[in-house]
Request: fold
Amino acid sequence: MSEVITNEDTKLVEGLVTCRAGAKLEVWVPEKQRFYTAFLRGRLRMHGAVVYAGDWVEGEVISGFEFAVDGVRERRNFLPKPRVANVDRLMVVVSWDEPVFSNTTVDGLLVLAEYFGLSPVLVINKVDLVRVRQKRKFEHWVDLYRGLGYDVVPISVASGEGVEKLRERLCGQLVVLAGPSGVGKSSILNAIIPGVCLRVGEVSEKTGRGRHTTTEVRLLQNPNGGWVADTPGFQKVDVPLWVEARNLPRLYREFGDFRCQFNDCSHTVEPGCAVREAVEKGEISKERFNSYIFWLNQIKELRASK
Ligand code: GDP
Ligand code: ZN
Reply:
């Protein structure tokens, strides 16, 4: 008969994985308010457990700097680029100008957020560049996305507008940024997290290569509570890499309010298409529908070239 050996002194504590580099982990233990170097106990390794930044683990503090992991909690969600588990908010960043605002880009990023089941906050940066004659156009976009139920935060790192509001939004959350190069992701992080120096853009984005292939994403501690990944997530161009044509319609959340004659309607040529009818009636925005067609074609092009 096998006997279960328990050690009375063993106390399981929980920790958050903040970085993984090969087999080595860095774990933050809230109870101790400090970081530990961690490793998976043999039993876990035998079962092929894989742990990512953002995973909650339980284990034992075995010395002043070491933590042995006995178990991994179930993940709520998982972002594959960068690899982060349990993401609370995907901060989709675009700019009003330089680079110029593109609703197609916004929709591509929102589609990816929806696809991975992440709650997005849409940050429109550089609002200091909104000219007087562009005001109405700017408000049109803000209203459109708010009307769809998205959390929109217009900000300007340059003037400070909206920065405090964004800081509050991200408080206590595990956040990953996403968005094209040059929109101000590093500037935003430097503004909302005192003392942080983000390496965004530097190498991983601008040259398309990783900093070091072995170094994974690291979660940076937000002094206001919460965490931010030091590596930005996808860019809009990633849509065709992840999403299949048949999945695209459900990622445009307002399309779900309309029932087409065919369940698998692509909203392009089918008869009895309630989505196209809603666009005609102005119940679905033309801009959203046009971006849907754009992304659908991008997906088809990629599939055709494979
Ligand atoms: P990233 O590539 O997304 O990380 O973007 P950066 O943070 O490197 O910013 C790109 C450029 O935009 C830099 O020259 C910033 O100084 C500038 N920038 C950032 N925020 C603002 C803003 O609110 N207004 C203006 N006018 N420029 C900004
Ligand atoms: Zn349809």
